[in-house]
Amino acid sequence: MAAPEQKTQEDCSLLPLVHDIIKCMDKDSQDVHQELNKLKTKIQEAREQISTMPGISMSPEQQQQQLQNVREQVRTKNKLLQKYRSLCMFDIPKA
C-alpha cells in the first residue's frame, strides 16, 4: 500500500475543477455531472481540513488575544536572550 500524500496548497485549488465544468458545459457534454461531483468532493475535503485546523474553534477575538500573548512572550524571550548574550561568560571565541 502506498503512503498517503501530504496535503499541499495545490490540493485545495478549485479553479481547475471549475474550468473543467465550464468546458463540459460549453461542449454540452454529459461529463458535467461527473465534474460537479469532483468539485463537491474537493469542497468537502477542504471543509474537513478546515475543521481540523488548530484554533478554528476560537473566535477571532480569542485568536487575536492569543496572538498578542504569543508576541509578548517572544518579546520577553528576546529581551532575556539579549541579556544573557551580553554576559561575558557566553562570549564565543572566534575561530
Automatic annotation (TrEMBL):
Any matching Pfam family: Med9
Listed InterPro entries: Med7/Med21-like, Med9, MED9_metazoa
Highest taxon in the source lineage: Eukaryota
Key words, A-Z: Activator, Coiled coil, Nucleus, Transcription, Transcription regulation
Parts forming coiled coils: 29-87
Presence of keyword Nucleus: yes
Subcellular location: Nucleus
Keyword Coiled coil: yes
Role summary: Component of the Mediator complex, a coactivator involved in the regulated transcription of nearly all RNA polymerase II-dependent genes. Mediator functions as a bridge to convey information from gene-specific regulatory proteins to the basal RNA polymerase II transcription machinery. Mediator is recruited to promoters by direct interactions with regulatory proteins and serves as a scaffold for the assembly of a functional preinitiation complex with RNA polymerase II and the general transcription factors.
PANTHER family per record: MEDIATOR OF RNA POLYMERASE II TRANSCRIPTION SUBUNIT 9 (PTHR20844:SF0), MEDIATOR OF RNA POLYMERASE II TRANSCRIPTION, SUBUNIT 9 (PTHR20844)
Family classification: Belongs to the Mediator complex subunit 9 family.
Quaternary structure and partners: Component of the Mediator complex.
Protein name according to UniProt: Mediator of RNA polymerase II transcription subunit 9
Native organism taxonomy: Eukaryota, Metazoa, Chordata, Craniata, Vertebrata
